[in-house]
Design goal:
By secondary structure, this protein is an all-alpha fold. The protein is built from five helices and no strands. Helix 2 runs antiparallel to helix 3, helix 3 packs antiparallel against helix 4 and helix 4 packs antiparallel against helix 5. The model has no long low-confidence stretch (mean pLDDT 83).
């Protein structure tokens, strides 16, 4: 571009439909998608770490041994979820951009299924632990389980927000 063209473009007003504005909007959208993917992975890592801790705790404490199958199922669900999130957020178009349409088509079922499994097992475990043990016993395990449930619910919120952006 020569100096005359540069001056002409510099004097053109930026409107809602101008290429500059559209490019900025796309960059903003891409940035937001990447941020949401990172948040989803962060919550998934939290669930994985806490579930692994709970499995180790149950392995060491005989009174928690009966919960090992449910903790194992939660861990399987979080591994599936982690893999799905990584897959979905690695799909890019020819321009190297994430495609929201690609992401949202799989969200409703593919992502929600393992999240709902995690929350379902977590809720069952909370009830079982409350019925079986006195309130002040196993405080750290209870806290990890509540943290896992909070992360699962946060994931459902993020999935809903991402789906709403289509």
């Amino acid at each position: 571009m020569n100096q005359t063209q540069d001056k002409h473009l510099a004097n053109e007003p930026i409107t809602k439909n101008s290429p500059v504005c559209e490019s900025l909007a796309e960059l903003s959208r891409q940035s937001e998608l990447v941020k949401m993917g990172d948040e989803m992975l962060d919550e998934t890592h939290t669930i994985r770490a806490d579930t692994q801790w709970l499995l180790e705790y149950a392995d060491k404490d005989a009174s928690f041994e009966e919960f090992i199958p449910d903790f194992s199922n939660m861990l399987k669900a979080v591994e599936q979820l982690s893999s799905l999130i990584a897959q979905l957020f690695s799909k890019k178009n020819a321009h190297g951009e994430l495609e929201l349409e690609t992401l949202t088509s799989a969200i409703r079922h593919d992502l929600r299924t393992p999240v709902n499994a995690i929350i379902g097992y977590g809720d069952m475990l909370v009830e079982d632990i409350e019925e079986e043990f006195e309130e002040e016993t196993h405080p750290e395990a209870r806290a990890k389980l509540q943290k896992t449930l909070a992360s699962g619910r946060r994931l459902l919120t993020l999935i809903g927000e991402l789906y709403a952006k289509r």
